[in-house]
Amino acid sequence: MAQISTDKKKIAELLDRGVAEVIVREDLEKKLASGQQLRVKLGIDPTSPNLHLGRSIPLLKLRDFQQLGHKIVFIVGDFTGIIGDTSDKDAERPMLTEETIAKNLETYVAQAGKIINLDEAEIHFNSAWLGKLGFKEIGELANIFSVAEFVARENIAKRLDTGKRVSLREMLYPLMQGYDSVAVKADVELGGTDQRFNVLAGRTIQPHYGQAAQNIVLNPLINGLDGRKMSSSWGNAINLLDAPADMYGKVMSLLDELVLEYFMCATRVEMAEITAMQEQLAGGTNPRDLKMRLGRELVTMYHGADAAAAAEEHFKTVHQQGGVPEDIPEMKVDWTQAPLVDVLVESKLCSSKSDARRQITEGGVKVDGVVVEDVGAMVDLSGKSEGVLVQKGKRWFVKIVS
Question: Measured between alpha carbons, how far is residue 141 from residues 23, 201, 391 in Å?
C-alpha cells in the first residue's frame, strides 16, 4: 500500500482548491487525517472522443488524492454513456449507439493518463456491472427514490414547466451512477456541480448494500471560449489532444476574466503565484501577459516544455508580428482551379460549406494575404509554382500546391 500523507496543509488545499462543495467535509477531513487509504472514484462518459479542460478539473483532483497515497478509481461510462445524462442539459439527450461509444472511448484512458498515474489506478468500464442488472435489481434501486425527488431538479422542473419531454430513461441515470459507487466500493466521489444529484444518489444507495455513504467533492464548471460552459457539443472546448499551437492560441482567445479561474482549476501552479497574479491584475498588468503564462503552462502539461516554447513562438510570429508560420501544412491537389468554399472544406479549415461561406462573408478568409469576401471566389493555381496560401482567421493556414 502507498504511504498515506496526512499533511494538514496538503489536505486543506485538496479540499479548497478548485472545490465548490464538500459533502460531508468534517467527516472527510477526519478520514484523510486518520491515515486510512480511501477509494476515490471519478466516472466520465465518452459522449465525445475528446477530454477537454473542463474534464481535467476532477481528473486533477483525482491526481491530488493519488499523490496523497489514496487509491483512485477511474470509471469510463461506456454503459451510462449510451443511456445519457441530462444533468446539464435543457433538453433530452439522445441515446448514443454502442458503436459511437466504442469509437469515442478508444483513447479515453490514454487521455486520462496525461493527468493521473494509470499504473497505480483502477480502471473500470461500467458496462461490466450495469449490463448485468435485471429488472429485479433495477426495481430495488428505483424504490429508494421518489419521482418527486427527480423532477425537483432545476433543469428537469424547467423542462416540465415549458412542456418539454422528460423520458423515463433519464430517471434511471442517477441510479446507474449511484450503483457505480456500490460496484467499486467508493469512499469518495468526484464530479462537477452539475452532477450533485447523481453523486448524492451514490450516498443514498450505498447503505442499501451495507456500505458506508461516500463523501463527495464537487468542482466548479469552467466556461469555454465563447463564455458558456465548456462543452464538446458546443465546440467551445480546449481539448487535451489539441495540437500545441492550437491549444496555446485558444488560451489566448479566452475572456480576460477567466484567466485566474483557469490557473486555479486547470493547473497546479502554486497558490502563492496565483495570488500574486491577482495583485498584478489589480495593479494594471495586461491580462494578455498572464494568458501567455497560462498557455505555456497548459501546453507544457499536455505536450512538454519544448512544444510550449514552439507554440508561443508560433503565436508571436503569426498574431503579434502579423507573420506567417514556417510549418504550414500543404495540401496537394490535382486541379488548377477550384471554388474557395470547396478548398476550405477539403483542407478542413472549415467544417462544412455553410461554415466556409460564413467565414468568407465575415471577412475571416485570406488568399495569399488578401481578404476574400466573395463566396463565389476561386482558388487558381495557374502559374503559381509555389502554390497558394489560404488562411482562416488568425491561426489556421494551408498551402495549396499542385
Answer: 22, 10, 55
107 C-beta neighbours (distance < 10 Å), count = 15
User: What CATH class does 244-320 carry?
Assistant: mainly alpha
Residue type, 25: R
The DSSP code sequence of 88-154 is T-SSPPPPPPHHHHHHHGGGHHHHHTTTS-GGGSEEEETHHHHTT--HHHHHHHHHTS-HHHHHTSH
CATH 3.40.50.620 fits 8-222, yes or no: yes
- Residue 355 CA to residue 248 CA, distance in Å, equals 23
Q: Give the tens place of pLDDT for each residue, 108-121.
A: 999 999 999 999 99
Q: Looking at domain 330-401, which CATH architecture does it have?
A: Roll (3.10)
184 vs 348, residue with greater confidence: 184
The pTM of this model reads 0.80
Compute the distance between CA of residue 368 and CA of residue 345 in angstroms, rounded to an integer: 18
With the C-alpha atoms ordered 47, 51, 56, 61, is the resulting torsion angle positive or negative?
Answer: positive
The H or E element spanning position 192 is strand 188-192
So where are the chain's domains? 8-222, 244-320, 330-401
Which amino acid makes up residue 313?
A: E
